[in-house]
Amino acid sequence: MDSGIAIEAEGLTKTYGDFVAISNVNLTVRKGEFMGLVGPNGAGKSTTLKAVTGLLAPTSGTVRISGVDIKDHRHAMEHVGCIIETPEPYPGFTPGEILDYIGRMYGMDKREIAIRGRDVLEEVKMWEWRNKPISGFSKGMRQRVVLAQALLPNPEIIILDEPTSGLDPRGMVETRKVLQNLKTKDRTLLISTHILSEVSELCGSVTMIRDGKVVASGDVSELVHRSAKNGITLTVGTLRPMSSEALDGVSGLEGVKSVERKGENTVVIEFAGSPEQQAEVTRAVFESGAGILSMNERGATLESMYMELTEEGA
Questions:
Q1: First-to-last CA distance in the chain?
Q2: DSSP characters over 143-160
Q3: pTM reported for the whole predicted model
Q4: Domain ranges of the chain
Q5: Range with lowest mean pLDDT among 52-61, 200-209, 229-238, 252-261
Q6: By C-alpha distance, which of 212, 194, 224 is closest to 37?
Q7: Which residue, of 17, 29, 270, 304, is most buried by count of CB atoms within 10 Å of its CB?
């Protein structure tokens, strides 16, 4: 058993009569990894997360958390914090009361609840509201309270089902900052979302699901480059004109289809290669001495890959 794996799902299938919600879903999230689970509405994302967290018994398949089968060992989820379909917190409670209740369910003592409660409420920017009834909160504030619940036991693994759904732009940014901060604490994150920019910003890997089946899974940058049918265009702005020798050097690199000067300080590179080869192109431009002011990439994006893999009939 690989001790470096936090979440491992094999052959997850869930049927309701003749309807197949998910079919043979395989998912591997390594410790310390941030993975995004993306797909259209109704693709099976929430069903997958429910099966992974034990909220739903799959028709077939297995789930292991840190190597422990969740079906056979009740303690498998002890170090997991999760939000599935963003449950509503009790409106008559305050955030402080909610966390006290959740903490006692986890078996935390009073002092630990007090310390962790303050930490997580400050982290989600809800500390000043700790003694206010949740009934008067906006949707974004309620979702932040729920996120605090998931983070309270200081879990090693966090599983979140569309945690920014319905939030205004500020709420989305604040929630993403909280999740970004988890990277500094060596946490593992599995997050479902339909917001691709969220995956690009937060996650190093992605699993795409369509019609209940996995259509792609792996490192974000590698998948994007692999799926780009026509390559990408790199537009480089420089402080000084690149010399003809430097342009010829870039042109001869693997993966480079063409190099064209556009004005004195702009070079357009048509590229179709691996991430490692693209890194060599960037290095060559840097070492030319022209001084890189900007480098914009167009053509291969997570959005284009998503559209390619999730379109009808794909």
A1: 35
A2: HHHHHHHHHTT--SEEEE
A3: 0.76
A4: 5-224, 231-298
A5: 229-238
A6: 194
A7: 29
